[in-house]
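User: Please fill in residues for this 1104-position structure.
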């Protein structure tokens, strides 16, 4: 490649470089030791090792060209090459295009300037065909060009960065270069004659972690497809690891988890406070600054985050102070004139926030004023914000009238009161000790409101958390849940939305509504609110409305339990938005078929157990026990295992601290029961111990009536067990495990998400292989490798597809066999790589017809079972099975006439032609199409599972296995001509090619004579005219003559139905020719074909 001209010192270089060619102006040199027999001996090994190990020479190519001028000691490097062929091209170009011109110049300085300008122009021209840009740093540009040539990846693959590091091959470190690109992790090393080239796709990574041991102080461990790779000796290992983690997680979401990829919040900031904002918010700016805390009289240092409609602040210590300010509540924004660089934001409720030491504060004030102007106009008539006020009044008074109006207009059935206030109103006349404690809690919160404000813009401090840990008062629970979860922001931004959704979802009937109806009376059945139509109706409306809003989730078990608790303390519309906050923001990816989010947090929980409770880890032989036990803890926030009066305290903490509160409480519960668990001999005993513990958790301060409390209903036999108060348990979890940081949880989630998704993918693969192996003769190992290649081709199709970054034809909600499907273009690539018939001249047509044959439901997609069945016949089928496959490829519905638009490309089809032809199907009556569609997808009609349709489909599949060759339709004239041509193409290049041609000519003649004899009984016209060009007089086929009848056939449609052949006729005729039987029955090494496909699958895309 051409290099930016740089001076080199030739005297020092002579020890490492040898002269190859030279003239008056240029010198071609070879690196000592390269290109010599035996690798140049010890010199070559040492030089090669130096080139790879030392950073200063790591990018040295074995060949280079220097520019020199007569009588000058200055040399400029202008080109380098990885091999002699590349550098020779550069040298010849210089001799032909530059040397003649240089003689015109008078001075050496002019010659040097001309050469430098010419080389820079070549570099710019070369950059047009590469992702290397002129403004890239020179070293990065060189590294990028080396990366493109070394690994042979498609030119669309974008290099992100590269690092010098060591790769551990066993116990031997190999110094080299690690390249991180958008889809691959690549490593190259050359050490003492040993070359190491490693390419790992990010979507194959199942584990990525930083490790350390006796040998490696600190390294990065990458596990891919069961193989472990270790990289160490990084200059900035934390930075490298973070980037690798981001690239791996991006690939995993994009390929395997596209639903999360689509819904991935763009507001991705380390501040936990931003997770309380609507998911539509986009993070615009982050500023480091100080916030004045008036009631504590000090400035706290932290970060201010600005989105479209909110200003958020969180202190460096997240527990110290945090604030959310909706721009719709802002009245004024000012700046101070002193040197403090302060921004003052005034909001409703006579409250002001002062941010100081803000960089570029003047520009920030101007931007915020502009935002507030637009926002205040937008929310002028619809603001439903909780006002910031020191008075302990109901924060929803301002919007009560409007909310009720919207609800009456859309649906008069929506409840406007929390169920707890309806079924358990507080009696202020009879105050017992519990009610007095409840009033004291309320008073504590009122004092906090007077100091910190009330509503969305209130200060959230350590004192706030302390009050939450003690338990939120019954009368304030709904309000504070809305506030801490951020649901109040969603509701404020969507006034009247819930009532409209309720109206639209009324009367809908689908799978989700059926499941909801089934679970309605299983939701807190012991509570009076859900023993009446009032509570059941409210629960039905909320769950149905959410299923209507988010059909991807629809309804999941555990949502009914959670929603019933929300309805107890929040109004119906508020309960709906709380459910939205939980399902879409606070517990993402929990409530769907694969519950990936819950499984990831299970893995995080196991990791925390290993860190904080090592003695328990040592005792338990199988850590999956904790996952199976704690799954319900995470899905229902402990509501399903704790008494209701205790569970609501856990929900209090969850809405304030998120998943961190659940993880902390889980650790505290295991710690509290540590001795009992260590004494257990098996899992069943451990489950019993934990269940007994949960039954004895109480809430001594709960004001709920004893008829509602579940903890008070414990039998006398269990009263001997020690009771545990939920408040003490939560307080202990905060004291012991409160040091777990949000950043650590986020990092563990990212790390474990790779493992969880890859485990699910492995489960899918094993299930697919188990099903497919029953119908094919391929071994499990061959099926495994075939599945990997099949799936990889699907991935490669979208690695560099800018128009569609996420993977198509992948739906994890479908049955295992249907999760991955390929289209005709992807099938053609695999056909070329794997089919033993891919050497045929008309291989594109064969691939097209095979795809059409396999695509029985005409959706232009085939799954792995269909794909493997075709490969199995090609390699393991008998003579009859292979011939039957070829026969079916040349009759309807597989066969379609192919006309090539570009004759210069021969029989090659363009992607557009291929996709168009794959979509052409034999027309069928509309009723038959509808019946077939319903049969192929029995679950799609009204989203109901049609058992009869499934049984019918299963019966059809059994009948297909018993397909009789007599049932095959006859092959007409044009189809038989193409069938003969295909056989000729298959025999091309075979050692017995001449004998095979002679045999097929004999068979063709025999078939035609048989057909002629049969037709003469009905018609005097000879049938031989139609096939006169297929076989010559001597019986040997003449190349090109077979095409003439096919070209004439469209213009003479009357001849087409004149004769046809049955499969039995063709089979019987071919069986008489031993050469043909031997050709189709000879064994083909599938293992070698699979290995070749794996190595060439990526390189084949590079050539394109």
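Assistant: Residues filled in for all 1104 positions:
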């Amino acid at each position: 490649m051409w290099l930016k001209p740089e001076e080199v010192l030739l005297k020092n270089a002579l020890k490492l470089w040898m002269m190859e060619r030279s003239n008056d102006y240029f010198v071609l040199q070879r690196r000592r030791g390269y290109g010599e027999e035996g690798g140049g001996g010890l010199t070559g090994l040492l030089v090669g090792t130096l080139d790879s190990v030392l950073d200063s020479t790591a990018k040295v190519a074995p060949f280079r060209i220097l520019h020199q001028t007569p009588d000058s000691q200055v040399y400029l490097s202008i080109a380098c090459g990885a091999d002699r062929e590349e550098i020779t091209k550069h040298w010849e170009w210089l001799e032909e295009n530059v040397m003649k011109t240089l003689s015109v110049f008078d001075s050496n300085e002019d010659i040097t300037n001309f050469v430098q300008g010419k080389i820079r122009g070549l570099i710019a021209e070369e950059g047009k065909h590469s992702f290397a840009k002129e403004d890239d740093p020179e070293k990065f540009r060189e590294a990028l060009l080396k990366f493109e040539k070394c690994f042979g990846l498609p030119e669309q693959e974008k290099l992100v960065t590269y690092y010098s590091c060591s790769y551990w091959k066993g116990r031997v470190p190999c110094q080299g270069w690690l390249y991180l690109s958008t889809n691959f992790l690549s490593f190259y090393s050359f050490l003492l004659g040993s070359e190491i080239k490693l390419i790992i796709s990010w979507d194959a990574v199942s584990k990525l972690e930083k490790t350390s041991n006796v040998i490696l102080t600190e390294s990065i461990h990458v596990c891919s497809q069961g193989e472990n790779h270790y990289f160490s000796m990084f200059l900035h290992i934390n930075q490298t690891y973070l980037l690798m983690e981001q690239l791996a997680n991006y690939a995993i979401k994009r390929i395997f988890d596209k639903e999360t990829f689509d819904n991935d919040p763009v507001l991705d900031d380390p501040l936990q406070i931003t997770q309380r904002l609507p998911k539509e918010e986009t993070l615009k700016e982050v500023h480091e600054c100080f916030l004045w805390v008036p009631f504590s009289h000090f400035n706290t240092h932290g970060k201010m985050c600005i989105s479209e409609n909110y200003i958020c602040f969180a202190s460096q210590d997240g527990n110290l102070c945090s604030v959310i300010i909706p721009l719709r509540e802002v009245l004024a924004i000012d700046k101070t004139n002193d040197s403090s660089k302060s921004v003052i934001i005034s909001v409703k409720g006579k409250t002001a926030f002062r941010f100081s030491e803000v960089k570029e504060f003047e520009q920030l004030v101007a931007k915020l004023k502009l935002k507030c102007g637009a926002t205040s106009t937008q929310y002028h008539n619809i603001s439903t914000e909780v006002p910031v006020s020191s008075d302990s009044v109901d924060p929803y008074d301002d919007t009560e009238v409007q909310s009720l109006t919207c609800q009456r207009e859309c649906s008069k059935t929506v409840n406007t009161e929390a169920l707890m206030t309806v079924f358990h109103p507080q009696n202020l006349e009879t105050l017992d000790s519990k009610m007095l404690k409840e009033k004291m809690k309320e008073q504590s919160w009122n004092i906090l409101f007077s100091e910190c404000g009330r509503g969305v813009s209130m200060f959230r401090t350590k004192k706030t958390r302390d009050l939450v840990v003690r338990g939120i008062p019954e009368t304030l629970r709904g309000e504070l849940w809305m506030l801490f979860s951020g649901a109040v922001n969603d509701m404020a931004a969507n006034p009247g939305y819930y009532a409209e959704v309720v109206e639209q979802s009324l009367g809908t009937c689908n799978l989700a509504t059926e499941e909801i109806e089934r679970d309605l009376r299983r939701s807190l059945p012991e509570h009076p609110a859900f023993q009446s139509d009032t509570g059941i109706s409210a629960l039905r409306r909320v769950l149905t409305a959410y299923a209507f809003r988010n059909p991807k989730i629809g309804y999941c078990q555990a949502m009914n339990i959670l929603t019933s608790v929300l309805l107890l303390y929040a109004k119906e519309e508020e309960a709906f938005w709380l459910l939205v906050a939980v399902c879409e923001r606070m517990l993402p990816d929990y409530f769907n078929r694969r519950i990936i989010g819950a499984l990831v947090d299970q893995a995080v929980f196991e990791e925390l157990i290993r860190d904080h409770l090592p003695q328990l880890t040592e005792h338990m032989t199988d850590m999956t026990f904790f996952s199976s036990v704690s799954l319900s803890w995470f899905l229902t926030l402990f509501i399903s295992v704790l008494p209701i009066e205790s569970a609501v305290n856990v929900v209090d903490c969850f809405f304030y601290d998120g998943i961190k509160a659940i993880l902390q409480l889980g650790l505290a519960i295991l710690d509290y029961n540590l001795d009992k668990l260590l004494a257990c001999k098996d899992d069943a005993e451990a489950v019993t111990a934990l269940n007994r513990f949960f039954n004895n958790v109480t809430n001594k301060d709960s004001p709920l009536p004893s008829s509602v409390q579940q903890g008070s209903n414990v039998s006398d036999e269990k009263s001997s067990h020690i009771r545990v108060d939920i408040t003490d348990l939560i307080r202990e979890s905060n004291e012991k495990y409160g040091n777990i940081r949000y950043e650590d949880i986020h990092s563990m989630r990212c790390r474990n998400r790779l493992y969880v998704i890859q485990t699910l993918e492995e489960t899918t693969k094993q299930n697919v292989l188990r099903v497919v192996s029953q119908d094919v003769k391929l071994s499990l190992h061959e099926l495994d490798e075939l599945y990997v290649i099949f799936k990889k081709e699907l991935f490669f199709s979208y690695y560099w597809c800018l128009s569609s970054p996420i993977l198509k034809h992948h739906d994890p909600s479908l049955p295992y066999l249907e999760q991955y499907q390929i289209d005709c273009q992807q099938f053609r690539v695999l056909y070329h790589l794997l089919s033993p018939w891919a050497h045929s001249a008309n291989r594109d047509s064969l691939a097209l017809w095979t795809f059409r044959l396999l695509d029985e439901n005409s959706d232009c997609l085939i799954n792995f079972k269909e794909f493997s069945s075709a490969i199995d016949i090609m390699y393991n089928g008998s003579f009859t099975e292979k011939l039957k496959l070829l026969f079916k490829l040349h009759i309807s519905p597989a066969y379609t006439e192919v006309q090539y638009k570009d004759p210069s490309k021969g029989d090659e089809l363009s992607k557009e032609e291929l996709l168009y032809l794959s979509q052409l199907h034999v027309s069928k009556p509309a009723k038959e199409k509808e019946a077939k569609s319903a049969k192929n997808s029995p679950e799609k009609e009204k989203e109901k599972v049609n058992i009869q349709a499934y049984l019918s489909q299963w019966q059809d599949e059994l009948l297909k296995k018993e397909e009789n060759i007599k049932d095959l339709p006859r092959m007409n004239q044009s189809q038989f001509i193409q069938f003969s041509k295909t056989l000729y193409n298959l025999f091309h290049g075979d050692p017995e090619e001449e004998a095979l041609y002679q045999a097929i000519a004999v068979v063709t003649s025999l078939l035609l004579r048989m057909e002629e004899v049969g037709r003469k009984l009905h018609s005097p016209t000879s049938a031989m005219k139609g096939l006169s060009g297929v076989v010559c007089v001597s019986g040997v086929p003449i190349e090109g003559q077979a095409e003439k009848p096919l070209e004439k056939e469209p213009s003479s449609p009357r001849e087409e139905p004149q004769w046809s052949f049955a499969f039995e006729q063709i089979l019987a005729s071919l069986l008489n020719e031993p050469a043909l039987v031997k050709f189709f029955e000879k064994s083909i090494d599938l293992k070698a074909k699979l290995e070749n496909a794996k190595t060439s699958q990526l390189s084949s895309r590079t050539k394109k």
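For context: The mean pLDDT is 79.
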